[in-house]
Write a structure and sequence with these properties.
This protein has 15 helices and 7 strands. Helices cover 47% and strands 10% of the residues. With 352 residues, it is α+β, with helices and mostly antiparallel strands.
């Protein structure tokens, strides 16, 4: 095992090791915690759940070995591909014919960057094997939430068992997810890098331009991978397994009580709006609504005339030629009115 490969043999395995195996021609890897006696605890999305998802998820679910039949479980461990969540299976079912690799912890930055593919190592340190096995066993009984290919997958499960670290944001914490995000970010930065070369007068198609472009993109990719590693992030914290279980588990009694409250509220709302239960209703004889809604043509015409006359009167009443509160004031008088000497102003103020 080294920088170029983390491959190991079965004889090198120890309980509490974080192991993984590549799937679909090295497209992705499946991770788990080795617990001894040829058994592995891992987080899986079973084939039955995957078939409900998209075509991409049906092809890239990272836990259902293609060699295991849906109807015929493994004779050694009883594993079959319909099972999902946190499960315990034998090492052969976990590997599914693939090679065995050991996930490395507490590596330095140079070693981390040298591993071009994510999901093989981390800067974070691992806890003691007994703590790792305790977390894995606890989550085997209580679950690890809903499986999500980018936010909550098998690698996230294994990393948590080893470190007790959880990311507080919605972003994925696994190396494979970080690799996908870093690659997308690098591709997105390509136009900006080409523009920089153009501003410096370097052709992107020339040898210096291609070399500069490649180095810039490689730096962006490695920097994004390093910044998203759980051992380098600042938005992570240690969460005890008991607290994690309490977050994700809803007691059946509480869920049933909450359903009853919602049903009762909905029923009360339905009855409260019924006309038989309302307090703002009254019986009105049939003659009264007819009188209310029936207006004779002559009355309606008279009403319209009154409204028109009132509107016209209001318009004319505001015209200065028809108002009674106006008077002619010579130009000298307004000047005298507006001009008040300081002494007169003080005297008038004192008198008032």
């Amino acid at each position: 095992m080294g920088v170029l490969s983390n491959k190991i043999t079965r004889d090198q395995l120890k309980p509490g090791d974080h192991i993984y195996s590549w799937r679909q021609a090295y497209l992705y890897s499946h991770h788990g915690i080795y617990v001894g006696e040829e058994m592995v605890i891992h987080f899986t999305q079973g084939q039955e759940e995957t078939e409900k998802g998209t075509k991409s998820s049906q092809y890239t679910f990272s836990s259902c070995p293609p060699q295991i039949s849906v109807d015929d479980p493994c004779l050694f461990c009883g594993y079959h591909s319909k099972r999902d969540g946190v499960i315990r299976s034998c090492l052969d079912c976990f590997l599914s014919g693939g090679d065995l690799y050991l996930f490395e912890y507490a590596v330095n930055k140079v070693h981390f960057i040298a591993q071009v593919r994510g999901g093989t190592c981390t800067l974070a340190s691992s806890d003691l094997p007994e703590y790792v096995l305790y977390r894995a066993s606890s989550l085997l009984k209580n679950g690890f939430g809903d499986y999500n290919l980018f936010k909550n997958n098998c690698e996230d499960f294994a990393i948590y068992c080893k470190t007790e670290l959880l990311v507080q944001t919605s972003a994925g914490r696994s190396g494979q997810a970080a690799t996908c995000i870093a690659a997308a970010s690098t591709i997105g930065s390509l136009p900006l890098n080409v523009l920089k070369l153009f501003l410096y007068g370097v052709k992107a198609t020339s040898i210096p331009g291609l070399g500069s472009l490649g180095c810039s993109m490689l730096y962006t990719y490695c920097q994004n991978r390093l910044a998203s590693d759980i051992g380098a992030r600042h938005d992570v914290s240690k969460v005890p397994v008991e607290e994690l279980i309490a977050r994700t588990r809803i007691e059946p009694e509480e869920e049933e009580a909450s359903n009853e409250i919602r049903t009762e509220t909905h029923t009360t709302s339905m009855f409260a709006s019924d006309i038989g239960d309302r307090h703002d209703v009254a019986k009105v004889p049939v003659e009264k609504p007819i009188v209310r809604t029936r207006i004779e043509p002559e009355e309606e015409e008279a009403s319209n005339e009154i409204r028109t006359e009132t509107r016209a009167t209001s318009m004319f009443a505001s015209d200065i030629g028809d108002r009674h509160d106006v008077a002619k004031v010579p130009v000298e008088k307004p000047t005298v009115r507006t001009r008040i000497e300081p002494k007169e102003e003080d005297e008038a103020s004192n008198e008032i």
